[in-house]
Amino acid sequence: MEPRIQYAKTADGVSIAFWTLGEGMPCVQMPSPPWSHVQLEWQMPAIRSWYERLAEKRQFVRFDSRGTGLSEQKGADFSLDTLVLDLEAVVDRLGLARFALGGFTDSGPAAISYAVRHPERVSHLLLWCTYACGSDYLQAPEIPALYALVDKDWHLFTETLARVGLGWSTAEEAGRFAELLREITTPEAVQKAWRANLKLDVTTLLPQVRSPTMVLHRRDIRWMTTDMAKGLASHIPDARLVLLEGTSVLPFGGDIEVVARAIDEFLGEGEEAATVTQQPEPGAFRTVLFTDVEGSTALTHRLGDRKARDVLREHERITREVLKAHGGAEVKTMGDGFMASFSSVTRAVECAIALQRAFAERNESAGEPLHIRVGLNAGEPIEEEGDLFGAMVILAARIAAKAQGREILASLAVRELCAGKGFLFADTGEVTLKGFEEPVRLYEVAWRD
Length: 449
Known about the structure:
By secondary structure, the protein is an alpha/beta fold. The chain folds into two domains: 269 residues, Rossmann fold; 160 residues, Alpha-Beta Plaits. Helices cover 40% and strands 21% of the residues. The strands form three sheets. The chain has an eight-stranded mixed β-sheet, with helices on both faces. A seven-stranded mixed β-sheet has the order 10-11-9-12-15-17-16, sandwiched between helices. A two-stranded antiparallel sheet has the order 13-14. A hairpin with a 5-residue loop joins strand 1 and strand 2.
């Protein structure tokens, strides 16, 4: 079944098209602009088989960068910063606290840049046939000669790129791929991307990469030598270099199973560990999250005990999956709600947003909607026998009770700790909560696009 295309909004207001496939630990592949179209790629059997193979053991995420495919065309300068903005929009829209990141040929520098900026979010960095400095290979004699055809003969350029540049083994496959290239982009976009890629240089960032990294490269690519891959791997701390047989710069332009097995092995080393719930030390500073199903009593009266329980069981499944994905520790469940603890306030807020988005998506096709309230507070609770107590916990529960369905409310402490983290808070004013003498100022966390 063709993946459902969704949209994320960047910080500068550009709509980015993406889809997800499979379940499990997320793996996000960055596109190589301007060669990207999330819908048309799926129609080509070789590409579709590659995506389906990657999604067998994980959630695979694919998106179009701005100015390409189904994404919004405005602001398509293909610079490193805008590529990072597009990636940020997609992972934030999905609420991914931690994920594997794949840099594919010309998107490799942007993937490296993001991994350096957000080491806490990139569990693994996969670099496929890429580079740190664009001028290292884009000025090789073959490349300028090839790109000189863009304005002179667009058809010949795409045919030559498919056969020689990308290394398709048969004329039929090359012709079909050249036709796809002509459909998904334009000569103007290719020239713009060419100029942008020449300026890319993240060489100084390589020693700063902290995520486990694997550099994959095919040995016999005519215009991208193995020396480039070796140089890239040698400057990234503890990077693993994997050299494979073949002539194509495309992972699906050869034996995909060999490539997929190398990726499975690399990602498999950390997938189980990455999903283990983080357990903070006793007495540590925590962020506490409470959830509550709006109208759960009325739901039981309307549906009866058994059917209502089935609906609430689905609520429990979704909540636990989102908590696990964001490193939240489930403290307890109260039948129609949860109490969870986080060692990171950022992950707690990201989890709250992901919860609301998960239930909103579920409600689009469900017969019986589920609307949840979420409350957040941060501080130092008292821990006894796996449970948490104290004024900060009580306040978190009171905040959740004050929220409406589909709403996230947070305390001033959470708001201040999230300063500069990119979240949007709206001051809802002061309220009087049961058990607290002084009024409490609350903030609504924005989660809708």
